[in-house]
Amino acid sequence: MTVEKQAPASESIMVVGGGISGLTTALEAAEVGYEVFLVEKNPYLGGRVAQLNQYFPKLCPPTCGLEINFRRIKDNPKIKVFTMADVEKVSGSPGNYEATIKLNPRYVNSNCTCCGECAKACQMEIANDFNFGMDRIKGAYLPHEMSFPARYVISSRIIGTEDAKRCKEACKYDAVDLDMEAKTVNLNVGSVVWATGWEPYDAHRIDNLGFGRHQNIITNMMMERLAAPNGPTQGKIIRPSDDKAPESVVFVQCAGSRDENHLPYCSYICCMASLKQATYIRAQYPDAKIYIFYIDLRAPGQRYEKFYNMIKQDENVFFIKGKVAEVSEDPDTKNITVVAENAVTGEKIHQTADMVVLATGMQPTAANAKLPADLKYNDDGFIINDYENGGMFASGCANKPADVVSSNQNATGMALKAIQTLVKR
Predict the structure, then answer these.
(1) How sure is the predictor about 3, in pLDDT bands with cuts at 50, 70 and 90?
(2) What was the pLDDT predicted at 6?
């Protein structure tokens, strides 16, 4: 007796999240012939990788990996990209899902040439979220220099103001559309891959480490933006209080990670991020002293172990095994003193530095806002993949803490799982 295989109601795949995992998932599926809808909440693709100065394994700038992916997406008619889009609901079963997508207004249409005249005309400034609020941008802005799609955004905060009118009048290409409204799109897809990524843990919640109270305490992602050529200081690492070149920097590992009051798990890549950022400082300030306070150092894999060993050879980098208990600020110099107990010698250490960098943990986006679908989560907010039932899968850091290489490998696997869902039905 032969059994006929039932065709899925839809042979399309929806990928939610346009970071490195979402891009890889979408491209892997589309390049073997499947229709893919790529849904991203931001006005640009690239996710957290776009905010880095360099990333492992080759310490490349984001342009190195993202640029080719953007070209592949642009050239592939199988991929439909929705930016500034929120998934409001996903219902159905494997092979036949109904997804409701809300498209938020950009107030700039496809006529945009990125000439920048709207930004020149705009007078109001808003906090720059891409740089974690370390600088300000105009209310008409390009999110960053390699934004894809390459199109300006008019902030909703200036809609209805004279600034908005000035933006429209300045545009020679009729690209500014102040009458844009939110609209809803319904998609029928056979499988869904959630590549919703991660957020830096909110360092304000770690009371004893002083973030928000002391200006010269920053997070590791803020350091990435300081070191980036397109960052708030054009790549110059200077301390926030007075723009001074730092002569000493303390890195505080596991800031919020491996802590039952915050994130109980290890965020996998924070140790390597701090070692990488030590090279940023060293490149600009060869004589600066760098102090790394850690519980345990994690260098996952031979390549990372080699990198760690290289950093250990630097006579101006000091590793202290001890958990930082408190910080204080000198009101005159704005220098920061961290206090920790050396776990090896037992002595109490007071180390003063010009700047402190908190290696804040990696928290899944879904931990703060559950996704509008029937998904299972572990206690930390990471999505649990149900391979037996199939249909919906989590890719990259939506599933577990990971670096870029691991996220890409995982994303390729999730693309295959999504395809298998369509083939099996």
Answers:
(1) very low
(2) 41
Q: Which CATH superfamily is 12-104+182-198+363-424 part of?
A: FAD/NAD(P)-binding domain (3.50.50.60)
Q: Where are the domains of the chain?
A: 12-104+182-198+363-424, 117-170, 203-360
**Which amino acid type is present at position 324?**
V
Question: Residue 199: enclosing H or E segment and its boundaries?
Answer: strand 198-200
Contact 19, 199 (CB under 8 A): no
Give the model confidence (pLDDT) of 46-62 as tens digits.
Answer: 999 999 999 998 899 99
Q: Give, for 408, the enclosing helix (H) or strand (E).
A: helix 404-424
Q: Is 165 exposed, middle or buried (0-12, 13-18, 19+ CB in 10 A)?
A: middle
pLDDT at 8: 55
Answer for the pair 280, 237: CB distance below 8 angstroms, yes or no.
yes
Q: What is the DSSP letter of 4?
A: P
Residues 305-332: pLDDT tens digits? 999 999 999 999 999 999 999 999 999 9
Q: How far apart are CA 91 and CA 60, in angstroms?
A: 40
* Residue 367: burial class (beta carbons within 10 Å; 0-12, 13-18, 19+): middle
Q: Report pLDDT for 9.
A: 60
Q: Which H/E stretch holds residue 23?
A: helix 20-30
Fold equal for 12-104+182-198+363-424 and 203-360: yes
Q: Give pLDDT, residue 424.
A: 67
Residue 341 contacts residue 325 (beta carbons within 8 Å): yes
pTM of the model: 0.94
Query: What does CATH list as the number for 203-360?
Result: 3.50.50.60
Cβ atoms within 10 Å of 348's Cβ, excluding its own:
11
| HSE of 347, CA atoms in CB hemisphere, 13 A | 5
Give 315-384 as a DSSP string: TTEEEEES-EEEEEE-TTT--EEEEEE-TTT--EEEEEESEEEEEE-EEEHHHHS--SSS-EE-TTSPEE
The secondary structure element, H or E, covering residue 417 is helix 404-424
- Tell me the HSE value of 10 on the side-chain side, using a 13 A CA sphere: 22
3-state helix, strand, coil in the chain (%, to 5): 30, 30, 45
Contacts of 308 by beta carbon, 8 Å cutoff, 6+ apart? 272, 275, 297, 299
CB count in 10 Å sphere of residue 215? 15
CA 341 to chain CA centroid, nearest Å: 33
